[in-house]
Amino acid sequence: MSFDPWNPDFVAWPYDALAELRREKAVHYFEPSNQWLIPRHADVNALLRDRRLGRDYLHVATHEEFGRQPEPDFLEPFWRMSRAGMLEVEPPEHTRLRRLVSRAFTPRMVESMRPRVQTIVAGLVDAFVEKGGGDLIAEVAEPLPVTVIAEMLGVPESDRHLLRPWSADICGMYELNPSLEAQHTAARAATEFMDYLKDLARTSTGDNLVTALAQIDELTEDELAGTCILLLNAGHEATVNVTGNGWWALFRNPAELARLRADHSLLPTAIEELMRFDTPLQLFERWVLEDIEVDGVRIPRGSEVALLFGSANHDPDAFADPDRLDLGRVDNPHISFGAGIHFCLGAPLARIELTESYGALLAKAPKLELVREPEWKPGYIIRGLEALEVTV
């Protein structure tokens, strides 16, 4: 099977096709999305850190200068939201925004959240066990990070049901060649979410991130809202999919699941391995701001590269026996959180959530068992299961 991100069979298990890409050559031009595919770990890792590439190009060129069509007017709310957060901007704006938001993500502050994460996890898992199981994704994986981020931001409990649908609608824009319907849906969600957060910032009080950010004069209303949306989207999409994809991987590898059940001290390396083995974010895009060369192939300014995280995480040049799930893997330079200046700010919090979630399920549902083989959502870039039905 060739690289085909719209093919359900490819989405369900892309790694054989990605292995073919790696073996053939270091760079592939993919005409359907007008991108250069980069499949090898060393190249992906290097380009994530290369300042000749950026998440956006409008700070150095116009759309026309890069041979791109101007963005349609109806998408203005989406792009205003997206470019107000640190993910889609480059220095010096990125440096300023990351510095401001990093105050809430110091190692000490993140670690101080562990007891609250443990309490939330305990409530979710206890309820799940009491009813005999169900959809592990809808009932445990999704509520956990949304609740944690919502509490961090100061979103009232009565409004939290709004967050996940907004996030899912916005993330539809991050797939390759999103449909016109998905674009309109993302623009509507961005408008509603931005308006909600701006209203919240005007009235928020207490010890929470929205209140703290609202008191920073150098942060605009758009930047505050865009930053909070980024934290929610990035803070829960990966955690949800590492939970779902990870448990599905464990059920398919019963010897490794038995190994983890017998030795919970493996959890730290197990979490890293599950993030590597079935990567939640498969592809990350960068614009080429200056001509670059990858393995002798010139990629000109104005091009877009697609860095294949899932492929890089299965590269035998970086991982011994990469297609084998090894929960004790120590040498594990996976790039599921990215690298360089856009390295995931919330990685320490995600690791806490995942460790506590897996730990609680292993302790309280030691006989967790799959009911039926799950189906994959259609998206390839943000890759996860529709549901994961289990019994306890």
Keywords:
single chain; 392 residues; alpha+beta; Cytochrome p450; 5-stranded mixed sheet; 3-stranded antiparallel sheet; 10 strands; globular
CATH architectural arrangement? Orthogonal Bundle
Residue-averaged pLDDT? 94
Span from first to last CA?
A: 37 Å
- CATH class bucket: Mainly Alpha
C-alpha Rg (nearest Å): 21 Å
Q: How can the largest sheet be summarized?
A: 5 strands, mixed
Which geometry do the CA atoms define? globular
CATH topology: Cytochrome p450
Q: Which percent range describes the beta-strand content?
A: 5-15%
Please identify the structural class as seen in this structure. alpha+beta
CATH superfamily: Cytochrome P450
Number of strands: 10
> What is the total number of structural domains?
1
Strand-and-helix sequence, N→C?
A: HHEEHEHHHHEHHHHHHHHEEEEHHEE
Low-confidence stretches: none
Query: Strands of the biggest beta sheet: in what spatial order?
Result: 1-2-8-5-3
Counting DSSP H or I runs of 4 or more residues, the number of helices is 17
Percent helix range: 40-55%
List strands and helices in order, with pairings.
Layout: H1 8-12, H2 15-24, E1 28-30, E2 35-38, H3 41-48, E3 53-54, H4 76-84, H5 93-102, H6 107-111, H7 114-130, E4 133-135, H8 136-141, H9 143-153, H10 163-171, H11 180-203, H12 209-214, H13 221-252, H14 254-262, H15 267-277, E5 283-288, E6 292-294, E7 297-299, E8 304-308, H16 309-312, H17 347-364, E9 369-370, E10 389-391
Helix pairs in contact: 4-11, 4-13, 7-9, 7-17, 9-13, 10-11, 11-13, 13-15, 13-17
